[in-house]
Amino acid sequence: MKGPIVPILALFLLVRSLHALPLFEIANQYDRQGNTCPLRSKANVACPLLCVTDHSQCPPSLAPSCPPGLLFCNDGTCQSSCGSIPNACMCDSTLAASNYLPCAAGQMINITHFDPTNQVAQTQTLCATNAQIQNVSQTSAWGSLHQSPVWLTCPVPPDPTFSFLEPMWVVVWSFTVWEAILLALWHLYKTTKEAKFHRENKVSGSYKTSLKSPNIINEKSLSLSDMASHDSKEKLPRQSVDTILRNDGDSNIDSHKESDRLLFRGFHANLFGFLAFGSVVVVSLLFLVFLGCLVSDNYGQLSGAEQPVFLTSDMSSKIFCAVWHISAAWFSLLLLKRKHIRNYFRIESYAYQCAFVQVERRQEEIVFLNDGNTWTARISLLEQQVVKRLGMDILVDTCPVYTTENKLGYFEYQCMRYVLNTEKKRFEPYTFQLGSTNSEIHAWSKGHTTTEAKRRQDFLGPNIIPVIVPSVFWAIVQEFSSFIYLYQMMCMWVWYYFQYYPMGIVQTTIILLSAFIRVFLRLRAERRIKEMAEDVVNVNVLRDNEWIENISSATLTPGDVFEVSEHTKLPCDAVVLSGTIIVNESSLTGEAMPIRKIAAPNNSAPYTVHDASNINSLFAGTLVSQAIPSHGQSRVIAVVLKTGITSEKGTLIHKILFPAPVSFIFHEHLKMAISILLIWGLVAFALSLYLMGRGNITSWFYGVFVMSEIFSPLLPAAFTINQSVCAARLRKKKILCIDLPRINLSGKVRIFCFDKTGTLTREGLEFYGGVVTPSLTTQPFEEREQDPLKMDPLIAMGIATCHAVTRTKDQYIGNPVDIESFNAMRWELSMPSETAYLDTLVPPSVSPNHPSSPVHILQRFEFVHARASQSVAVLDTATNKVHVFLKGSFERVKHLALPESIPTQYDAVAASYAQEGCYVLALAHRDMGQLGQDITMEEIKKMTRDEMEASCGFVGFVLFRNMLKHDTTEAIAALKGGDVRTVMITGDTALTGIFIARQCGMVAADQRVLLGDVKEDRVVWHDVDTEEQLDVKEVLKQETGEAGKSKLELAMTGKAFEALCELGEVRSYLLHTRMFARMTPNNKVDCVQLHMEKGVTAMCGDGGNDCGALRAAHVGMALSEAEASIVSPFSTSDRSIMQCVELLKQGRSALATSFANYKFLILYGECMAFWELIMFYFTVIAPQPIWITIDGFITTTMTFAITQAQPAKHLGPSRPTAKPLGTYTLASCLGVIFINFWFLVSSVAWLFQQDWFVCNEFDSSSIDSAKWWLLGDNYEAEVISLVIIFQFFNSGAIVNFGSVFRQSWWRNYILVFIWTCFFVSTSFLTLADPNPYSCIFRINCGSPSVLQDLGYPLPWWKIEPYNSPLGHNVLPVWFRWQLWGFILANCLVNIIWERVIVLWLGRQWAIRRNKNNPKNKRIMFKL
Question: 988, 995 in Cβ contact below 8 A?
Fold first, then answer.
C-alpha cells in the first residue's frame, strides 16, 4: 500500500507550498510576486442619464437635439412620438424636483483601468470628462436637490413584501386553520365515541394481546353444527372442524403456521371521519399544487410575468423553502402512518360487530449472510428499535366484513376466509377433516347434500385461490408509497424550482421508468400466479345421491364426490375412490414423468397424504392425462379433501404471494452506507450555507443540491434496472425466476446440494440384468444375466410383473425404473379379460408355434417411499399357481424376506454391484399354491400388505445402470473451480451414490470414503473399499491434508443422519460428508437447512421428493419442464446440470454489477459534492450545458452501460463481495475519491500558479449568486469542470473492471462506445480553439468582439456575451495540452489504483491473508 502514499504526500506538500490560493482574501488583489494587480479595462460602459434644470445646461455632446422628424422625449431619446413617456429624471418619485430635465441618453465610454470597488464614482467621473462638463466636482448624484447638473441614479426601491393578510394568504390561513380544527374535532369525537370500548378492553385485559399470545385463534373451534343451522337429516360420517393452524403435512412447507399471531381490530365507517379523511387527501394534493404554483411562478408562467404573484425572487424562494419543509413533514407523517391512517378516521369497536376488520401481524426479517459486523449490528439494532417503536414491524391490512345468505359474517385475509364464531365472538379460519383412515375416507363415497355443501362453502369460501391483482393505478400508488420516492420527489422539486428543470425532467423520467418497471414486473408476476391459481372448470358432482352435471368447480367443498375427467386440471386436493388416473404433476412438484394414481383401499390403514397414501391422492392444479374407470363402472370418482388456499397448490401460492421478509447482507450494509452519506450530506449542506451566501436563502438551495448529489436519487433506479436486465438474461438461458432478489443471492452460493437420480444422472436407468440367488445360501451367486429369454423364469416373471406400469395411448406410464425393466423383459401389457384381474401380461414366445400363457395381476401394493418396496400377487395361467413377488431396496427386502433365504454373500454382492454404479433392487418370492384349491380369489383380495408380503424368500437381484448426464462431470468441475462445495443428497443406496460421486468428480479417485450406517442401534463407520471398521473421530483427528485437499470423505445413510441428529453430533461431521444416501424428503429438508447454517446453500433437484428441500434452500433450482413451475425460486426446462453453473455465473455477475453501479453512483455523488464545494468557495458555477452533460448523459448512460457487462465464461475461484462497506468496496471507493479530490484541488492550485490567470480571477462580489447560470464564464469553473467531466465518465469505466465475475471490460461494447464518445468529446473541448461546439459549453470561448481582439476570426455563430470583465475564458494552447495530460494522468492513476492495486495486488494479498489467517466467523470446508 506504499505505492499511492508517495504521490499523495507530494500533492499535499505542493498544495501547502502555494501562496496564491484565495483563502478568504479579495480576488484580483495581488499577483504572484505580491504586487497589486493592475486594473483591467472595460469597454462599452453605459453612462447614467444626466439631469439638468434647463436644457441649456447640457454639454454640447449631450444636447437635446434630434434629426428632422423626431422629437426629443423625456427619457433622453429621440422618438417619432413621445406620447406618455414619463420624465426619467423624476424616478417615479414625488420627492424629485419638478424642474429636472434629461439631457441626451446613450453615452458610452471605455474605462482603461476599471475599479470594481469604486465603479459608480469612476464611471460618473469619466462620463463627465467624456461629455466635457467643465466643473466635474459640482456634478452630484440624484437626490441632492437644488444642484445642477446631477447624474440620474434612482434610489433602489425597497423590495415588495407580503403583510400575509392579502386575500391569497387569508385563504391559505383559513384553510389551514379549518383543517387543524377539523382534525382536532375529529380526534375529540373519535376519542369520545371509543371511550367505552377502550375502558371495557382495559378491564378485560384482552386488548392487543394476540400479537404475543398465540391462543387467540389456536383453540379448537366449535362444531359447525353448533354455529349454523341446517336441515340435513342424513347422518353424515364422522367429522371435525379445526382451525387451519393444524399442520397436516410437512412443517417446513406450511404457510399458515403464523396465523396464530394475528390481532383483529374492528372499525365502523363514519361520515364525519370520511369527510376528515377526504380533507387530508385534499391537503396533500394542495401541497403539490402549491409547490407547482411556486415553480411555475418562478418561470413567469403563472400569470405571464416573472414573480408576479410572489413578488420577488427572494420572497418566492423563502416561501418555497417553507412550503417544501412543511410538505416534506406532512408527507413523511402520512407515509409513516399509511398503514393505519384510513382506520384512524373510523370508529374502533369490537371486531365481531364492525364492518371492517384491521388485521395486524408482527413479522421478523430474515437476514442472509449476517456477517456479525459490530457497526452493522448496531445500526440494525437501532433500526429495529425505531421500527418497533413506530410499529413499522407490524403488517396491517384492512378487510371488509361480508355476510353469507345464512347471516354468517366473514372476511378474507391473505386468500383465507375467517368466519365469525358467534359464541366465542371472534373470527377464525376453518377446515374440514374427512377422517384419518382409508375407511373413514371411503365413508364419504356417497357425497353429501346440497344444503351441507352450501353450509360448508359459507365457512370455507369458494373453491378458488383468490389472488387479488391490484389495478395499475393502485399498484402505482403502492409503489410510490415509500420514503425513497418521497426523498426523490422533494429533491426534484428543488431542481425544478432552481432553474434546473432539464435535468429534473431527465431524472424524473428515469425514476418513473424504474418505478414503472417494478410495477410491470410485479403485475406480470402476480397475473401469472393468478392464472396458475384461479383455475375453474365444470365438473360432475354427486349430491343428494344424484349426479349433477357441469357445475362450477368453485362450488366444491370437502366431502363432495366428483367425477375425474381426462385432459382437465384437478380443481382441488382429493382422494381417488375408484378407477385409475394418470396425472402430470410437473407444475406442482417438478416431476417430469406422469404418475399413476389408484383408488384408496377400503381398510383401516391410516391415510397419510405425503407418505403411503400419496399414490391415492390427487392435487389441485395437476393435469389429468387419462382416467380409467374400474371394471363395471362408468366413472372415475374422487372425494374432495381440501379446497382453495388449504390445498397443496394453495399452500405454494400462499408462500409466493406472502413470503417471509428477506434481507440480504447487502441491504443491511447499504442502510449503514446511507446513514454515513446522510451525515456527510448534512456536513456538506452546512458548508454550502456558509460558502454560498453565509446562510441566505439562496445557499439553502445549493445545500439541497449537494445533498441530492451525495445520495443520488438514481441509486434505487439503478438496482431495479440491473435486476430486470439479469432476469431477462436468465430467461434467455431458459431459467425462470419468480423471486428476483434471489438472483443476487445466487452470486454468494458456497454449497450446492444435488439430488442424484434424474439430476446428476440421466432421466432413465438402463436395465443391467438379474442375478439369481444360489441354490444354497453358502454358495456364490451366479453370473449376471441380461437376456430375458436366458434368465431364470421365476426372476424373469417377477421383474416383468412386480410394478405399476400402465399404458396410455401407446405410452407407458409409471416409475421410470419399472418402465425400463418392463421394456427390457419384452412382455406385453393387455387389457384384463375379467374384473378380478387388475392387469394382464403376456411373456414373449419362445417360438411362433408355441404362444405363451398370459399372467394376470390379482392384487397390487404400489411402491411407497416409507417402505421402499412394492408387491404383487400374480396368477400364472400355465400352472394356475398364484405367486407373490416383493421388490424393493436390497436393505428392505433383506429385512422382509425369510432369514434362511438370504445368502451369506448377500451384502457383499449387493455392495460390489453398487460400487460399480448399479442401482440394486432385490426380489423375493412366495408360492401361494393353486388358485381355487390352496387359496381363493376372495382371500387374495382381502389380504393386507403385511399379510401378502410375509414369508417371501429371496430369489435374486435386479440391476440397473445409473448413467451420468454427459455434462455432469464438467459441471461439478466448474463448481469446484468456482469455490463451491458440492454435496449429494439422494434416496438411492450409499454405495451407488459413492460410485456416482467418484465418477462425476465430487470425490477424487485417490480419496478414501468412510460410510456411516446404523448397526445395533449405533452409528458405525467403515471404509467402503476395505470394509475396515474405524473410529471416525480418530480418523478425522489424524487427517493431515491441507484445507480443501483432504484425502478423506465421509458418507452416511439416512438412518445414520437421523441418529446423529438425535445425538446432536451431525454438525461436527456435516462439512466432512460428501454424500447422504437413503434420505427421505424430510431428511433432505433437514440436511439442506443444516448446510444453510454454514453458508449460502443451493439445492438442485428434478422435483418429486425434492420439493421441500428446493423450497427450503437459499437458492432452489428445479429441473422442470413445466413453463411456470412454482416448486422453487428458479426453474429450468433445460435439464442440464450446467444450468446450475449458468445460474451462479449470472448471479455473480448480477451481484458484481449491482456493486459496480453502487460504486459508480457513490463516486458520482462524492465527486459532485467536492466539485460543488470547490465551486462554491470561488462562488462560481459551471455552465448549465456541463451540468446537463453530467446528469443527463454521463450518469444515465454509464449507469445503463454498466448493467450490460456479460457474466464471465467460467466460474472464478471466489465470489463477489456482498458488503457495500466491506474492505474491497471501501478501498476501491475511498481510493478513487481521494485521488480525484486531490487532482481536483491540484488543478485549482496549478491554475493559481499561472501568471496569465492571476489578476484575472472571477470576482463574484457584484453578481447575484441566485442566478447560477451566469457564474460559469471564468477560468476557475472551466478548469475544474474539464477535470471533473473526465473523472465522472472514467469512474464508470473503472467500476467495470473485474473479469473474475464478468467478462473483460472491453467486451462491454456499449460501455466502451459511450466512454470513447465522452473521451473524444471532452478532449476536443479541452484542446480545441473557440468553435461552435465548445462555445455551447462556454469552454475556450468568449464574447465575439473579445475573441476577435485575441486574434481569432469573428465567430459566425451566436454567442451570448460573457458575464465577466475579461470577456473570455480561452486557455493558452500550451496550457490546454498540459491540462489534458494532467487529466489523463488523473484517469491513469485511478485505473492503476483500481486495476493494479485493488483488484490485483490487494486482492492477492487479501486471499493469502484469509487463507493463512481465516476469519473466526468464516467456516472453512473442502470443495
Answer: no
| Residue among 1054, 1308, 1290, 1099 nearest 1202 (CA) | 1308
Note the pLDDT of residue 214.
34
Question: Are 1167 and 1291 a contacting pair, CB within 8 Å?
Answer: yes
Q: How do residues 989-1027 score in pLDDT, each as one tens digit?
A: 788 888 889 889 899 888 889 999 988 888 999 888 888
How far CA 28 is from CA of 690, 1366, 1415, in Å, comes to 22, 12, 58
Q: Cα separation of 571 and 619, whole Å? A: 8
User: In what side-by-side order are the strands of the sheet with 918-930?
Assistant: 766-772, 953-961, 918-930, 881-889, 869-876, 855-864, 839-842, 828-830
End-to-end alpha carbon distance in the chain: 32
User: Alpha-carbon dihedral of residues 1412, 1417, 1422, 1423, nearest 10 degrees?
Assistant: -100
Residue 1270's pLDDT is 65
Round to whole Å and give the CA distance between 601 and 394. 48
Residue 1205 DSSP symbol: P
For the cut 50, the answer to whether the pLDDT of residue 22 exceeds it is no
pLDDT value of position 25: 59
Q: What is the distance between the alpha carbons of residues 979 and 973, in angstroms, rounded to a whole number? A: 10
Return all residues near 1032 (Cβ < 8 A) that are at least 6 apart.
1010, 1012, 1021, 1050, 1069
Greatest C-alpha distance within the chain: 154
Q: How far apart are CA 934 and CA 305, in angstroms?
A: 113
pLDDT, tens only, 719-748: 777 877 888 888 888 888 877 778 888 888
- The CA distance from 557 to 1076, in Å, is 42
Give start and end residues of each alpha helix (H) in 1064-1105. Answer: 1066-1070, 1081-1092
Number of other CB atoms surrounding residue 909 within 10 Å: 19
**Residues in CB range of 388: below 8 A, 6 or more apart:** none
Record the cell numbers describing residue 1107, joined without a space.
Answer: 420439493
pLDDT at residue 224, rounded to an integer: 34
**pLDDT, tens digit (0-9, with 9 covering 90-100), for 897-918:** 999 999 999 988 988 888 787 8
Contacting residues for 725 by C-beta, under 8 A, at least 6 apart: 1203, 1204
Closest C-alpha among 797, 767, 768, 801 to residue 784: 768
> 3-state DSSP call for residue 748?
coil
Percentage of the residues of the chain whose pLDDT score is greater than 90: 24
Grid coordinates given for 72: 426629443
- Whether the CA torsion 648, 653, 656, 658 is positive or negative: it is negative
With cell 469612476, the residue in question is 122
Residue 693 CA to residue 1324 CA, distance in Å, equals 35
Model confidence over 1183-1232: pLDDT tens digits?
Answer: 888 988 988 889 888 988 998 888 888 888 888 887 777 788 888 899 99
Tens digits of residue pLDDT in 1316-1366: 999 999 999 999 999 999 999 999 998 888 898 888 999 998 888 887 778
Residue 1264 CB contacts under 8 Å (≥ 6 apart), including other chains: 1270
* DSSP conformational letter for 1314: H
